[in-house]
Design goal:
The structure is a single chain. The protein is of the alpha+beta class. Helices cover 37% and strands 11% of the residues. It has 19 helices and 20 strands. It has helices spanning 5-8, 16-22, 37-42, 108-112, 117-140, 149-163, 170-182, 207-223, 271-281, 368-376, 384-390, 405-423, 431-448, 456-459, 470-473, 492-500, 506-532, 546-558, 575-580; strands at residues 50-53, 56-59, 197-200, 230-233, 246-247, 257-260, 263-266, 299-302, 310-312, 322-323, 338-339, 344-345, 348-352, 355-357, 362-363, 366-367, 428-429, 485-488, 536-540, 564-568. It has a 3-stranded antiparallel sheet, covered by helices on one side. The longest helix has 27 residues, at 506-532. The radius of gyration is 29 Å and the shape is globular. It starts with a helix and ends with a helix.
Length: 583
């Protein structure tokens, strides 16, 4: 893959050497830097890529300007700036640094390919501890068990040398989880990142105990009306291995999907997961055997790759659903729409200071437009037309007409969603307040912290986007990856393959190639029939587009049996074109 020039570009300033020496204070020496012969022997210094500029040779791992900060020397303490996984490239002006120090994102492999696992952990641990002590020293000073920075740095270095890992304190873990939320470029609700509460379950080591912790998490979050954010953290992955716990679901709460005679009942997003549950675990729906559109999926929990995954049902009483109704349109209640109270994401790994936690479910609270899209997107519940008919609107738009009924339906259903959550005393934020608060928070971050990653299309609400200054104010925001971070981990397909092995696709592939052969044969047969029939010429004169739409609709019907040609009498076609057309 060709590397973008702006990422490979290295700017060397005259004061590079002075910056390197001046900014080295209070920074733990990197592995292999010559601190001691023991360190040299345990973790040999990696071969670093170099950039030749005249007589000056610069190691990529030593740069702190013009590329990702890989030494923790940036005065803004953000650590290495990665180009992936968010967004996989640098979104925004590539020539502009993410902070006033000029730090820029680099391709991940440019750093990690030149490091051992222990060296990567040492670098990331050093960067995180620099950030942690920069932000927490004042508040934690005097707290029992809180070590001075130099002492804690030395403790962590020794642990990594001896065990290739180290253990976070409770406050380091909680603050890391909070910073990971603060660094999430797709989240518009980051204003409350400091309020995230840690449920420390690192001592849990069985499927049953993990399930109990997840239910405790849901119960606590829903009991407070979803007004508080929690993260439950299980033991981390052992460095250099895949030995870590896993929750196979995308979220702790989600709805199943069933294919009933070609019709999808439930949330189509989870169809493949539901089919996997039936094929691998024999799960066919609720205990009463009645498959419906709003059946909670069971949790698939695996405490270790060496242990078999188990299914656990989610009790309805710990997460009561919100029934969607409208204060002025009681007819909407007949559609029996509902949604679960909180988004509790568990498909992301949490990485803090080189330690990866593969099972760390966390919750926030919904914005109204999130549930609105879940109910109306064509790839989800697709309730736009049923709601329109319930409201007495005609969704059958005539050719050439604008389907403005969609806007009316979205407005009514949006109000219904927001009203239903409020009546149920479940926290929900409206999209206008959400983007307004994010815009104020973002400006404060840029003034004070001086950096803030943003994914514009995720942060801006899908409704009434231009009604807030953020619509134009964020259009040049940069997106990049900082750690601590929540990063996509193994999905259920990978976990299924690792535990059960690859699926036998012989039958499905045979059916696929048979279908391809039949389609090719039928296409050739139809083309031969069409060529033997009299071609059809459709003439139309269209100014507003109505006639063109009707002509297109007619042509789509006639094209099945004959060759169809169109002639626009008011368009680009001329009389000469009509003369050469064969009838």
């Amino acid at each position: 893959m060709k590397v973008p020039a702006f990422i490979k570009k290295i700017t060397v300033k005259k004061n590079d050497r002075r910056n390197k020496s001046d900014s080295s204070d209070n920074v733990a020496p990197a592995v292999g830097s010559g601190e001691s012969e023991k360190e040299e022997a345990l973790m040999p210094k990696p071969k670093c890529r170099t950039s030749q500029m005249g007589s000056l040779t610069i190691s990529r791992a030593s740069l702190s300007h013009g590329t990702g900060n890989t030494t923790g020397k940036c005065p803004f303490k953000h650590g290495t700036v990665y180009s992936g996984p968010y967004p996989g490239y640098v979104h925004g002006n590539p020539e502009r640094g993410i902070c006033p120090n000029g730090c820029k994102a680099v391709i991940n492999s440019d750093i990690t390919d030149n490091e051992s696992t222990a060296e990567t952990m040492m670098r990331e641990a050093t960067e995180y501890l620099e950030l942690y002590y920069h932000e927490r020293s004042e508040e934690m000073s005097g707290t029992k068990g809180f070590l001075p920075k130099k002492e804690r740095m030395a403790q962590v270095r020794e642990a990594i040398h001896e065990t290739r890992s180290y253990v976070h304190t409770f406050d380091e873990l909680e603050h890391g989880a909070r910073v990971a939320w603060r660094n999430a470029p797709k989240c518009a609700n980051r204003k409350y990142w400091q309020q995230l509460k840690l449920l420390d379950c690192r001592d849990v080591d069985t499927n049953e105990e993990m399930y109990g912790s997840c239910i405790k998490h849901l119960t606590k979050a829903v009991a407070c009306g979803s007004a508080e954010a929690y993260v439950t953290v299980f033991r981390p992955i052992k460095p250099g291995t895949c030995d870590g716990p896993a929750i196979w679901n995308d979220q702790l709460l989600s709805y199943a999907a069933y294919n009933q005679d070609g019709e999808i009942i439930g949330d189509p997003k989870n169809l493949r997961f539901t089919q996997m549950l039936e094929e691998r675990f024999g799960w066919k729906g609720p205990p009463d055997g009645k498959q419906g559109p709003y059946d909670y999926l069971p949790l698939v929990i695996q405490s270790s790759p060496n242990d078999a995954p188990q299914l656990f049902d989610v009790p309805l009483e710990c997460a009561p659903e919100v029934h969607i109704h409208h204060p002025e349109h009681p007819e909407l209640s007949e559609l029996n729409m509902r949604w679960y109270p909180i988004p509790a994401v568990c498909a992301l790994d949490m990485t803090i200071g080189g330690i990866v936690y593969s099972a760390a479910p966390f919750n926030g609270w919904y914005a109204n437009t999130e549930v609105l899209r879940d109910l109306t997107d064509e790839s989800r519940y697709n309730m736009l037309v049923p709601v329109a008919r319930s409201l007495g609107l005609d969704p059958d738009t005539k050719p050439g007409d604008e389907p403005l009924w969609k806007d009316e339906v979205m407005t009514v259903l949006n109000k219904a969603v927001y009203h239903s959550f409020k009546v149920s005393k479940i926290a929900m934020i409206g999209h206008h307040n959400l983007i307004s608060m994010f815009w104020d928070w973002y400006r404060d971050e840029m003034r004070n912290r001086r950096y803030c990653p943003v994914n514009f299309k995720w942060v801006i609400p899908p409704m009434s986007s231009s009604t807030n200054r953020a619509y134009l104010g964020l259009n040049k925001a940069l997106e990049y990856t900082l750690k601590p971070a929540y990063i996509g981990g193994k999905n259920f397909v990978t976990l299924e393959r690792e535990h059960f092995g690859k699926r036998d696709t012989t039958k499905s592939m045979r059916m696929f190639f048979t279908a391809v052969f039949l389609a090719s044969f039928l296409k050739g047969w139809i083309n031969k029939i069409r060529q033997k029939r009299q071609p059809i010429l459709i003439l139309y004169a269209s100014v507003t587009g109505n006639a063109a739409a009707y002509a297109s609709k007619l042509g789509s019907v006639l094209r099945a049996c004959s060759q169809v040609t169109f002639f626009d009498c008011c368009g680009t076609n001329s009389a000469d074109d009509l003369q050469i057309m064969t009838l």
